[in-house]
Amino acid sequence: MTNIPSKSEILAWISENPTKTAKRDIAKAFGIKGAARIDLKRLLRELQDEGKLAKRRSSYRDAEELPPVAVLEVVGADADGDLFARPLEWKGSGAEPRILMMLRSSDPALGHGDRILGRLTVDKTEDHSHTARMIRRIGTNPQRILGVFRAGSEGGRVLPIDKGSDKQWTVAVGATGGAKDGELVEAEQAGPTGRMGLPKARIVARLGDPTEPRAVSLIAIHQHGIPDHFPDEVVAEADTAKPAELGKRSDLRDMPLITIDPWDARDHDDACYVEADTDPKNKDGFIIWVAIADVANYVTNGSALDREARKRGNSTYFPDRVVPMLPDRLSGDLCSLHEGVERACLAVSMRIDANGNKIDHQFHRGLMKSVASLNYEEVQAADDGNPNDKVSTLMDEIIQPLYGAFAALMKARAARQPLELDLPERQIVLDDNGKVTSVKYKERLDAHRLGEEFMVLANVAAAETLIAKKSPLLFRVHEEPSPEKLEALREVAQASGLVLAKGQVLKTAHLNKLLTCAAGTENDELINMATLRSMTQAYYNPENFGHFGLALRAYAHFTSPIRRYADLIVHRALIAAHGWGNDGLSPWDIEHLADTAKQISDTERRSMTAERDTTDRYLAAFLADRVGAELTGRISGIAKFGVFVKLDETGADAMIPIRTLGREYFDYDPETQTLMGADTGLVIGLGQRATVKLAEAAPVTGGLIVELLTLEDRIMPRGPSKGRGKPPRRKAGSARKKAAKTARKVKRRRK
User: Fold this and answer.
1) Would you say 93 and 51 are in contact if contact means Cβ atoms under 8 Å apart?
2) 270, 455 in Cβ contact below 8 A?
3) Residue 383 Cα to chain centre, angstroms
4) For residues 224 and 197, what is the distance between their CA atoms, to the nearest angstrom?
5) Which of 116, 210, 452, 673, CA to CA, is 20 to 30 A from 13?
6) What is the mean pLDDT of residues 176-180?
C-alpha cells in the first residue's frame, strides 16, 4: 500500500525543490502510483483552498513564497538610487515582497511601471526580501489607460482619447471606482489581454469633466505620465533653503545686469550686460557678461530635490500651466534673478571682436543683483526709438551696448551659417476661464534673437572650458541628416524646380542656399517643412558629436538650470573643474552620466509630445463651433491612409481620410510622398494649396477631419468612388453550376 505524504511533507518538498513542483514531480518524489494519485490530487486541492499553495498552470508553489521566475513591475528607485520591483502575482497573506533589482551593464534602462520577467533569489534584509536578475523586458507592458468612461448596464467602457485610436476597454461592475458617465478617468489593465473580445480594465482615478477648458493640459499630463505633484520631502527640502551669501563668491552686485523675458514670465534664470572693450588691440570689440542662476547651490547631489529634478528632466510648458522641474520656492524665488534682489549665480565674461568672433572667456561663481527685469517688447521698442520711462534711463549704459554686441554677433553668425529655418511659432491665447480666444503667430523680434545669440555663445564657452579641463559633461548633440532623408529632401526640391547638389559634404550653408532660393516663392513653406523633416532630433550625450544645426563643433546647455537638468549637470561640472566647492559633479553623477543623458533626452521628447498634443486639443476646441466652414491650407503630409493639411489660419494639422478623396482609387508612392489617381492621373503632393471643409473637430482627442474641396484651384469631385472595394461581378448561378460539376466528378470517382 502506498503511503500518502502529509500536508506538511508536501509543503516542505515544494519549498526545498521550487523547480520540481508539478503533480507528477511530487508523485515521483513520494513514490505515488496508480489510484493513489487521486488522493494526492485531493490533498493538493485542499492545500490550495487553505491558501497554503498557489497553482500556476500545472505547477504548485508555497503561497507565501515567490517562484524562482516571476513577472515583476518596477516601482522606482530609493534615496540611494537602488531600483526596486514588486511581484504582479502575490497570493500570500503577509506583506507584498519588496525586490531589489540587480541590473547588469547590458540591461536596458528601467523606469516606473516597466514590466519584466525576472529570476528571483531569496535575500532577506531590512529593505527587501528578494533580489532579481532581468531575463527579458516584457513587450506588452500594460500602462495606465486614459479615456472617457461610458456607463452601461454591466459596468461600462473606457473610450480612448488618443488621436486615431479606436481601442476600447470593458469595465466590470465592481471596477468602475464610482466613475460617472462622461467623466475623464484613468484606468489600468485588469488581467491578461485575451484574444477574443475587448480587454478588461479597472478605473483607478477620476479626473473630472473632459470638456472643461483646463482639463486639456491635465489630459496630456496624465496621458504621458508627467509628474505634476512634488513629494512632501522635496517640498520640505526646498522650503528650508536659504539665500546664498557672498562668502568666497565674486562680488558682481555693482554690475548692471538685466533680465529680458516674456512679459508673463514667472522665473528669470539668465541676465546679461555688455560693455565696450577698452583694450586697444580689440578696437570696436565688446565684453559680454551672461549670468545664470546658481541652481547647484540649492539642488545638491543625491538630495530629494536632485532625484526629483532628474526624474522630471525638464519643465513642461502648456498654454494654461507650467509643470516645473523644481518647486516654486526655488524656480520662482531663490533661483530667480529678480530685480533688486541679491542672487547666487554662475557668470561668464566673453570678449568678442568687431566681427563677433569670441577671443576668450572666463567663468565666475558670484553674487549679483539685477538692476531691471524687462520684457522683449519694451526692449525692442527702446531700440526702435520709443523707450518707456523705465528703459529710457538704461539706454546709454545698457541697451545700446547690448544691440552693438548683437550686431557684431550677427556678423559671426552670417559667416558660420547655422541653419536658417523660417517656421513661425503659434501662440494660443486663453481667457481667464481657460477657453481659447484666438490663435496667432508669435512675432520674432531682434530682442529675441539678441538673447538667443548671447546664450548660444555662453553655451559654447561652457563646452570649450570643460573640454579644456578634461571634465565629464553632457553635450547637446545634433547629428547631420541621414542619406535617406537627404535624398527625400532632394526630390522635394527637384519637384519645386530647385537643386540640392549631391556628392558633397553637407553643410548648413548648402541648406541655407536652398531655403534662400525658395524664399518668396509659392514653395517657400514647403521647402522649410521638408528641410525640418530631414533633420535628426537633438539629444544629450557624454560624447561630443557636434551640433549640425548650429554649425558648432561643441555645444552644451548651460543657461537654463531652473528648467533643464542637463544645464545643472554642466553647472556642477564647472564648479568641480574650478574647485568652487563640494557641490560639483559627484562620482555618482560621472558614473551614471550616460544613463542621465538617456533619461533627460527621453523626458524632453515626452514633454514635446505632451505640449504638441495639448496644442492639438486646444485647436480642435477652438474650431469645434466652426464645423462645416471652408478653410484654406497647404498639403503638409501624405500617408497611405490619408492626407494632412496645415491650415493657414491656425497652423493646425487636419486629416483628409483617403476614403473621402475624390471618386477614384489613389495609389500611394512612399518615395515621392504622393498619391496618384488611378483614373484621372491626378497627383496629390506636398506643398499644394487646398481648400477644405471642416467635417469633424474632437477636442478630447485633438483630431480634425476635413473634406477636400479644391486642390490648386481645381474642384475635386465628391461622393463615393466608382466601384472601389467591390468584388468582381459574376453571372447569376455560376457558383451553383460549379458546385454541381464538382459533385458529379466526386460521384464518378467513388463508383
Assistant:
1) yes
2) yes
3) 38
4) 27
5) 116
6) 87
Question: 192 and 293, same structural domain?
Answer: no
H or E element, residue 280:
none
What distance, in Å, lies between the first and last C-alpha atoms of the chain?
A: 61
Give the DSSP letter string of 660-697. GSTTS-EEEETTTTEEEETTT--EEETT-EEEEEEEEE
Contact 195, 160 (CB under 8 A): no
Split into its structural domains, the chain has a count of: 6
Q: Are 87 and 66 in contact (CB under 8 A)?
A: yes
Encode pLDDT of 406-420 as tens digits.
999 999 999 999 999
pTM: 0.75
Measured CA to CA, the distance from residue 650 to residue 652 in angstroms comes to 5
Q: Is 660 helix (H, G, I), strand (E, B) or coil?
A: helix
Asked if residue 109 and residue 26 are part of one domain, the reply reads no
State which H helix or E strand residue 318 sits in: none
Section 561-579 average pLDDT: 97
Residues 518 and 496 sit within 8 Å (Cβ to Cβ): yes
Owning domain of residue 446: 232-479+537-610
**Which pLDDT tens digit goes with each residue over 284-334?**
999 999 999 999 999 999 999 999 999 999 999 998 889 999 999 999 999
Render pLDDT for 334-377 as a digit per residue (tens, 0 to 9): 999 999 999 999 999 999 999 999 999 999 999 999 999 999 99
Residues 31, 92 within the same domain: no
Asked whether residue 32 falls in the same domain as residue 83, the answer is: no
**If you count them, how many residues does the chain have?**
751
Residue 495 lies in a domain: yes
The C-alpha torsion from 312 through 313 and 317 to 322, rounded to 10°, is 40
Q: Which grid cell is 20?
A: 520540481
User: Which of these three, 137, 168, 187, is where a domain ends?
Assistant: 137
